[in-house]
Design brief:
Radius of gyration: 22 Å
Largest sheet: 6 strands, parallel
Helix content: 25-40%
Length: about 450
């Protein structure tokens, strides 16, 4: 697939890194020559110096032959115009990064499609949505719903105070098909487990189950759910502001922002939150504002180190739920190992959303897991695809991939070796990057 990415910022660079590992023809367009020179020395991509809204520069990328055009510059208006121009020049599917949530409303989708923009992505909106989900499910490291909650994906950090340490996955399941452990992160490596694999202290285990089974798994893992009511947010960034707005009047929210003008803007937008102008790195200020009375602490400043350290401080004073925005991907594993709690990375969220457009098969969801190398895809089964012809145990499915479950006629099921899929099924697959290329042939 030929893919043109306009914008070599955080999201564009991460996408280029991820997609260049596969058999795609990637062109990266940006007006920063130094940045492109650095990237071209590290990645197998073609770089073009120029503007995303210059017709001549777009033609230099051969955008007219592009199957996918992605505009992720820092400027919303530029991304919208770039997609319009790319579509006019002959590009296939176009994706624009935006900053206005109104554009995502269903009634506006048709309008943008008429302009030549097929998909819109707002990474900060995705991040705020993820944070709110973490606050509502306090017993898990990660939670994601498929098909409106018909199947649930969640991750659990294994401590010594539970009933499942030392048990194999086969022993844990006890012959019942109520859930499946689909990935284990252990000492910075991710395993796609099998029945004889054992659960150890320190593992992060990812399960797929029906909603009704989640409480029993959490109980066995020694996890106790608690209610979050009082929330402190450090940082009035777009993510911080969007999170405060989404939490609304159902939570008691305090938001601390160092920049006075920004704090006034946040107070205007998130009018249900108490916005405080001050330096959130000052522990005396945090204590004065009652950090020890908080159920959750969310650090979303523009600095990953500040977010990690402040969450550590919150943990020390007794805050049960902490969430840090960690945009430096090299720090994610460190944050997990020291027990920060939830980790948010908008580059990974944006990559998850866009990645599904690069696959040959039809995919309704892709989820990149911040706590592991694994990715989760929800494939839609097509008529006469390979997975409809044989049961799972006969398919020679890639070793580094596993099927967790499937949704059929609005009902979620856990898959087993005898499962055979039919047209229209939505199949939840866990995979390591090494198996991604092989997966599409089973579902296309």
């Amino acid at each position: 697939m030929k893919i043109v990415i306009a914008g070599a910022g955080e999201v564009g660079t991460h996408l280029a890194k991820m997609l260049s590992k596969e058999d795609h023809d990637i062109v990266l367009l940006d007006d920063n020559e130094e940045k492109l020179n650095n990237l071209s020395s590290m990645l197998d991509v073609l770089t073009v110096i120029g503007s995303a809204i210059s017709i001549s520069d777009l033609k230099e990328t051969s955008v007219q032959h592009a199957d996918l055009f992605i505009a992720v510059t820092p400027y919303e208006e530029r991304n919208i115009v770039a997609c319009q121009l790319a579509k006019h020049l002959g590009a296939g599917k176009t994706v624009a990064r935006i900053d206005n949530q109104e554009f995502l409303f269903p009634q506006n989708r048709e309008y943008f499609a008429s302009l030549g923009i097929d998909e819109l992505i707002y990474p900060e909106h995705l991040a705020a949505k993820e944070i709110v989900t973490y606050l509502k499910q306090t017993s898990t490291r990660l939670i994601h719903e498929f098909s409106g909650g018909k199947l649930i994906l969640f991750g659990v950090k294994i401590r010594s105070n539970n009933k499942i340490v030392g048990k194999t996955l086969r022993e844990l399941a006890q012959g019942k098909e109520e859930f499946r452990a689909v990935a284990i992160t252990r000492e910075s490596e991710t395993l796609i487990p099998h029945g004889d694999d054992m659960i150890l202290v320190g593992d992060i285990v990812f399960f797929v189950s029906s909603p009704s089974t989640v409480p029993s798994i959490l109980e066995k893992a020694g996890k106790k759910k608690f209610e979050v009511k009082n929330v402190m947010i450090l940082g009035g960034s777009r993510i911080g502001m969007k999170t405060a707005m989404r939490l609304g009047e159902h939570f008691n929210v305090k938001l601390i922002e160092q920049d006075k003008a920004r704090s006034m803007k946040v107070a205007e937008k998130a009018n249900k939150a108490l916005v405080i102008h001050g330096d959130g790195r000052d522990m005396d200020l945090l204590k004065t504002e009652g950090i020890d009375q908080m159920d959750a602490f969310i650090a979303v400043t523009g600095n990953s180190e500040t977010n990690i350290l402040s969450c550590q401080l919150a943990k020390k004073v007794g805050v049960k739920r902490t969430i840090a925005e960690v945009e430096n991907i090299d720090y994610i594993d460190f944050a997990e190992r020291i027990g920060i709690g939830g980790v948010i990375n908008k580059k990974l969220l944006a990559a998850s959303y866009i990645y599904r457009f690069t696959l040959n098969a039809e995919v309704s969801h892709v989820k990149c897991l911040t706590a592991s190398d694994a990715e989760v895809l929800e494939f839609i089964v097509k008529k006469d695809s390979l997975v409809t012809r044989k049961a799972i145990h006969e398919l020679s499915f890639p070793e580094n991939a596993t099927i967790g479950g499937y949704i059929r006629q609005d009902q979620g099921y856990i898959a087993n070796g005898d499962t055979k899929f039919i047209e229209g099924d939505k199949v939840v697959v866990f995979t390591l990057p090494s198996a991604l290329k092989k997966l599409s042939k089973f579902f296309k």
